Amino acid sequence: MSDRVDPDGLRLPVKLDSTSNGEFEPIPLAPEHEYANREALEDATRNARRVGLDRRRFLVSACGAASTLLAFNRAYAAAGKTGGFYDVDDEAALDLALAESELGKREFIFDVQGHYVNPNGKWLEGVPADAKPLSFAPKTGCALAEEPGARSYLKCLGPDEFIKDVFLDSDTDMMVLSFVPSRRDAEPLTIEEADAVRRIIDEMEGDHRLLLHGRVNPNQPGDLDSMDELAERWNVAAWKTYTQWGPDGTGFFLSDEDVGIPFIEKARSLGVKRIAVHKGIPFGRHSYEHSQCSDIGKVAKRFPDVSFLIYHSGFVPGTPELAYDHGAARDGIDTLIRSLIDNEVAPGSNVYAELGSTWRFLMRDPDSAAHALGKLLKYVGDENVLWGTDSIWYGSPQDQIQAFRKFQIAPELREKHGYPEITQSIRAKVFGLNATRPYGIDPDEVIRRAAKDEINRRRMAYQEKPEPAFRTYGPRNRREFLNLLALNGGNRT
């Protein structure tokens, strides 16, 4: 397989690119990012030769990831971005045992925001016969694409590839499969299709590995009534909603007495008291205020028995994250912090900040990354930050895992702003332990069962000779973004 999966070793194991999750227009790489990628590839060439491997095999190894992160450090420092860094031993680029000790799996990893594209889903019914939807995705170049049929390439996005990306090519133990905002008659992924993926994983003795959200837009007729079936028939783990979205283009606040409050009360009555709300990553300027977090503190204070999971943490791509200033009229994560402070919601309460797409974008900017993580750990609490990756749009989440495993806030910022050092204990909390509380998961039970299931047996066999694609799924430029938007009837994914 290696002869078709990057035979020349040109793909880096930590992907620094312009890919988005389809909810925001891709932002091109800056010169320092281009420089970082060049440095990383040059280092890989040199280091592979020194350890006696071809470049592809070197990049697949833990040394490849270590070498790449070290090159990123140099490039960011050269650009004057030193607020954060990847705390990797220089020798790890050449010492496999050291690299594996630094970057290898040691945590329970519970990814609370995953996505799936059904290659045979109902969404294809509205697509013109001659169209080639999602053909821009680099991941569609797998071997399955060569099978007969004009759209055989979509098989590259199917359940087998989902399992490979998430559970074989990454250290992920569990995932929540989430949904996108949509009209009831035009869902890119239906609850039935999502459950089909869950059943495939169940058949591999992995019923402990995948949870489902139930999509609810309470400002859309019929959605509140549908919550009964979602809870009773589909056993959803939480409700996913998008406050900026509405069937007429107008969003809502969770604190709205005629929309948001009835939704929260219905969730409570059904006993699924977890609300995952998309905040930040705005869908353009229309109803922009509803993408911000001003309502979160209000409802968290009013409903202390409900867990509010703030997906994306209010982050706005392209807006630099700085130290929190209560008097500044800033966007992004600061809107979440301000709402909590104004409503006297203390760190460690019933509000959780999730990192899907947020961390993936922050990997491009160590200064913003340091402030964003520092603020969330300080003001939301080190037991209330949740791991999410928004994969599969970004391909396998392993690069995000490895980058977070080694990221550290610079001592100068920690001293100046009261940010904590990111210790191994904090990493373990963020990677999975924190999410077990609101989602009601026993991590020890999952770990015990996962060690004996078919997915783990496949993973152990696969790790003898892994062939990660180092590819993404999401749009990489404005044209691809607009094509995806049109495919979804104007709905952001």
Give average pLDDT, whole number.
Answer: 92
How does the major sheet shape up? 8 strands, parallel
Provide the low-confidence segments as ranges.
none
Helix content: 25-40%
Overall geometric form: globular
| Strand tally | 10
- Cα gyration radius (Å): 21 Å
CATH-derived architecture of the domain at 110-450: Alpha-Beta Barrel
Q: How many H/I helices?
A: 18
> Which assembly state applies to the chains in this document?
single chain
Distance between the termini: 32 Å
Please indicate the percent range of residues in DSSP E strands (runs of 2 or more).
5-15%
Q: What is the CATH top level name of the domain at 110-450?
A: Alpha Beta
Q: What is the SS-derived class?
A: alpha/beta
By CATH's scheme, which homologous superfamily of the domain at 110-450 applies? Metal-dependent hydrolases
Arrangement of strands in the largest sheet: 2-3-4-5-6-7-8-9
Strand/helix succession: HHHEHEHEHEHEHEHEHEHHEHEHHHHH
CATH fold assignment of the domain at 110-450: TIM Barrel
Structure description:
- Helix content is 39%, strand content 9%.
- By secondary structure, the chain is of the alpha/beta class.
- It has a domain of 341 residues: TIM Barrel (Alpha-Beta Barrel), CATH 3.20.20.
- An eight-stranded parallel beta sheet has the order 2-3-4-5-6-7-8-9, with helices on both faces. A two-stranded antiparallel ribbon has the order 1-10.
- Helix 1 packs antiparallel against helix 3.
- The model has no long low-confidence stretch (mean pLDDT 92).
